[in-house]
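Student: Send me a single protein entry containing the residue sequence and its fold in token form, directly below this note:

Tutor:
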Amino acid sequence: MVGTRSGFVALAGRPNVGKSTLVNAIVGHKIAIVSDKPQTTRRAIRGVSTVDATQLVLVDLPGVQRPRDLLTGRMQRRVELELAESDAALFVLNGEEGVGPGDRFIAQLLAKSPVPVIIAVNKCDRLDHTRTAQALMDADALGVGAEIFPISARRGKGVGPLTERLGELMPEGPFLFPPEDTSDQSVSVMLAELVREQVLRRTFQEVPHAVEVVIEDIERPREDFTRVRALAWVETDSQKGILVGHRGTMIKAIGTAARKELERELGTKVHLDLSVRVRRGWRADDRLLDRLGIE
């Protein structure tokens, strides 16, 4: 297509700064699940935003952190690879919390990147003018990023100008995805993530980190009805007990909420069969992580 621009934008930031919410806001569709738990984003999720003659492929990276195990080590390698292959980097900060050691660690990583870096200071809707000005000065002091945008991903404030500027940084060339696409995720991965999102919202301590959801089967016997069989993996019997809950109350609540999300995504009525299985040490199993697409 003549006169078009397209390219990849890697979103970097500490866990829980709002990267997934920002991707969803730019794309205009729920691409990445949202939670206040660390490790919510485990894969490099791509959201596609096509507006007029510009297409942004937004790569929602796992929250940058120092690796602690095989799972987080893979997540960190994926961050570094995606940054190297992108056309621009978007460094997302939490304006409400301020700049911390984790942000400075990421700034050092981005300083080595050959691509332009834009900084988005998120959650400015929760700050007054004085605190917003301080957050912007602290972001500037990191020494990376030629431009800084105050935004609220949740409310959409400032997202338009940020998106427009990112589009200007993209190289000229044909679209990388059909204009109607909003993500490169498979249906099964998207549905599994929607189920995991509901687990994250209802569990605490070690359980959220130890849970992975896989879709074992999707069947659509009618155009307006879908059967989904999902399996939630945990690493210990005690975690399974928490996830199931007393007389099955927890897994029932998770299943009910997840079904509504699946219906919204699929546009049909959904019967969700959700069960829990113990798979010890799955986060340290190379072959299993390969199968899950956590590279």
